Automatic annotation (TrEMBL):
InterPro entries membership: Bromodomain, Bromodomain-like_sf
Lineage: superkingdom: Eukaryota
Domain Bromo: 1-62
Keyword hit for Chloroplast: no
UniProt name for this protein: Bromodomain-containing protein
Database matches in PROSITE patterns: BROMODOMAIN_2
Record keywords, A-Z: Bromodomain
The keyword Transferase belongs to this UniProt entry's keyword annotation: no
């Protein structure tokens, strides 16, 4: 949720070179740094892979991060498909509008 504190996670910033957390992702969306689904996916996946890198395999945190990563990847695939469909629908509507305006 928030940036990792070294006191709670010794050597975190030695192991994880590019930290990411939900608070940072929210700020990046709000500030317009994240503009696309791919950019959002990149930061979410980075946050979860950081957790996998830092936490030992088999620990509860590792297992939760792995489960979340699998779930997020599937959800974003669905979102991208819907987004792609929406873009295609908009293109068809624009093309239809252009044809209609030529007939007037």
């Amino acid at each position: 949720m928030n940036p990792i504190k070294e006191a709670n996670a010794p050597m975190y910033y030695t192991i994880v070179r590019q930290p990411m957390d939900l608070k940072m992702i929210k700020a990046r969306v709000r500030d317009g740094i994240i503009k696309t689904t791919a950019e959002f996916e990149r930061d979410i996946v980075l946050m979860l892979t950081n957790s996998l890198m830092y936490n030992r395999k088999g620990t509860e945190v590792y297992q939760m991060a792995l489960c979340m990563l699998e779930s997020v990847v599937e959800k974003i695939k669905l979102f991208k498909a819907a987004d792609s469909y929406s873009v295609q629908a908009r293109k068809l509507l624009l093309a239809s509008d252009r044809r209609g305006s030529r007939e007037l």
